[in-house]
Amino acid sequence: MSNNTQIPAPFMIRENINDLIAFAAVAEERSFTRAAARLNVSQSALSHTIKGLEQRLGLRLLTRTTRSVAPTIEGEDLLATLNPCFEKIENRLQALNDAQDQPTGTVRIVAVEYAIESILWPKLSPVLKKYPSVNIEFVMDYGYTDLAASQCDAGVRYGDQVSEGMIAMRIGPDERMVCVGAPEYFKEMGTPKVPQDLSDHRCINLRLSTHGALYAWEFEDKDGNEINVKVKGQACFNTVNPVMQAATDGHGLALIPERLAQSRLDSGALQMCLGDYSPYFPGFHLYYPSRQRPSSAFSVVLEALRERG
Fold this sequence. Notes:
Largest sheet: 5 strands, mixed
Strand content: 15-25%
Shape: rod-shaped
Number of strands: 14
Order of helices and strands: HHHEEHEHEHEEEHEEEEHEHEEH
């Protein structure tokens, strides 16, 4: 090879995308005049762009005469490659634009079973019907799940349990945990008068999934002092609904959300004790990273879950 032979430099698509668009316009219009009008540039600037592109490629892409412009064989081949790519990009951009009116995407939310059943599903079920391109994945976990590690977009916790650095939005009313048992249990074992009496009772435990520890029952005296009691019993679960059912079946006392137990309290299937030691605390909040940029799907989920009134 002669030392004077010029080897084209490597072609970088990101640096030449505008030139490729210019070539496609001229090849399709078969006229520098019409292509320049289409691109809103001068004919001389367009001609200079095409010449520069051909030089960098080391190929002649267009055959020019005084009357017409036509792609060469290499130009036709390049145009056949470019057009589907440009069309795909344009379609995707249009889809993104349409998504502003029609939300799309998947949202993963981690929460306890009670929050999913009592708040998330009732509020988000209509979202799925209204927006067919929105998908919602519910991840049930009683531990303090790390959103990044679990690849979840948001989580649900009680308001006083949300970590710093997170955006928190209330999605439910204030709650309280109440101690309940079946009427036959109280008839057999008596009724505890203070939280410390629970050491003499059969209790149904809840095991937290994050670190495997048993949930310590939390109470508060009239002066606002916290009372934490570790209870024992034959049955232990890692979700709250079986805990309530075991209590209903007379296997011991359970500490569960009052709203969850309300229908069974109303029917008499369960009875409450230690109510004076069961304070209210901030209800369920949706939390997510402050750095997160909400997608269109996440935005409609936020709006649906927002607590009103």
